[in-house]
User: What shape does this take?
Amino acid sequence: MGISPVVVFSDTDSDAPHTRAGDQAAAIGPSYLNIDRIVDAARRTSADAIHPGYGFLAENADFADACERAGMVFIGPPPNVIRMMGLKTGGREIAASAGVPVVPAYDPASRDMLFPVLVKASAGGGGRGMRIVWESSELAEALDSARRETERAFGDGSLLIERYIEDARHVEFQIFGDSHGNLIHLFERDCSVQRRHQKVIEETPSPALDDDLRRRMGEAAVAIGRAMGYTNAGTVEFLLAPSGEFYFIEVNTRIQVEHPVTELVTGLDLVRLQIDIAEGKQVPKNPRSIGHAIEARLNAEDPANNFLPSTGTIHRWRPPENVRVDTALRDGVEIGVHYDPLLAKIISYGMDRDTALRKLVYALRSTCVLGVTTNRQYLIQILESREFQEGRAHTSFLPAPRVEDDDVAIAAAVLYLDRTRKTPFPNYRNNPYRDPWIKLRVRNEETTVSWKHLADNLYEVRCGARTHACRVHTRVNASPGQITLETNGIIQTYEIAQSADQIFVHSPRADTTIQRLPRHPRPASASQHETANSPMPGQVLRILVHEGQKVKTGDSLVVLEAMKMEQTIRTTINGRVQSVLVKTGQVVAPGQMLVEIGAEENEP
Assistant: This one.
């Protein structure tokens, strides 16, 4: 477009890949939410417009005001529209005035409340503060916890209570308005596959809509936009009930994370279109949607361990080919606790849904991320489920995570280590005929692996009770960080990276993290006590106990937060707090000790 871009970066991101994407990069301190520092960075670099991205600032009317006061163009809707939609109650009133049905809402003191209900933040989104309440006895606690979370996230604890529509679909319409009075929609996106109210898979067109329903919902989205006097990009979100009735939820006054699927089927660059509109140009006439696009969000989280966030260093990143990949990953990037767990968006396109779906599954199988645990296998599980394949997924649908460890991956890791070590494994043993061995932990299970060199490149590897005959193929692929094995007549290449005592193994079937253990166990402490350790990387939000306090099994000790997720650490024994080892605001690592508890004699 002939526009010189300036990017901003926080203190922790001075070496992040995005800092190299612009012609200049400006430091803005510890937070991406500091309006004054961002505006100051724009002044220092002589920028005349600011694009707010699709984070919290994109829906911050004060930020849009600050840009205008500084004489800079805010690439988004005007501040009064953002403010109008800033509270979901305002959006509901506008939708109702436009003749669009809204989800029934309740006053917290209402005696006529029909359960289940959904508690949600009035002043924010992204799943923060959302709670499903199934019966009246749960309402008070849900309101308290939701209010705390929304105050922390948005600085506003106001809440909305709506009827919870079970098995509904989440369908949203992309709208664009210009300063010439034109307003269009760019069709729908189906975002029904969600976890904790966070979208996981998005696609367009929606398999749930026929032509008539698509027309009616699109007209409703445009009517709401016109009632607001909307300009630039926005997203009108609806719930589609199993009955076929649809209800307005909210308007997001920004571009969405999932906008690439719309770009692929319309052929339009939506961010470029935002800039064009901000420069006074008109929206396109008669847009068309051709084909099908599906997006999967690759997150740093462990589905097999309650989706706890994962942090670490990316030792190898190999994106898939022949699909669109939106990411800032590269080898050496640090994944910390401060931001969303989203690592990459992987988006496929085909002339029909089956083609797009098949391409996305293949792309995910060939995606390699070594260094952090991801939801890659779980995404494949969702896409291959019958419900999704048949287009029947809804907001309550999610399969239970299935662990698909590749057992041969352990053998691959051991043989790779054996063949690449500059010095051999320590093989001193009283029995000179015993095979070399190593102790490993895989998914919290310890195992001893031994191996025997039978002939040239042929090994027998014993993993616990299983034995694998493995031939190493040196001619198939001799790239560093890879080993190619033939087992049971099947040849498979494994990608491997190491960091300290951890070994990361990738294959199309599974990603496996292996930890090397000491060959001899450490002596156990004689005293009975417990050290409550952090199950995940995170930041200490609240400390709920003090030294000397008596606690009983199940009592809350510490509340952690990482990547938009709260985790309460509880004691598993009765006793007394001996020491609190962390402070509020401290960032902790997985396994770090938080609280030490001693069991007292005669403790009930």
In short: The chain has a mean pLDDT of 90. The longest helix spans residues 211-228.
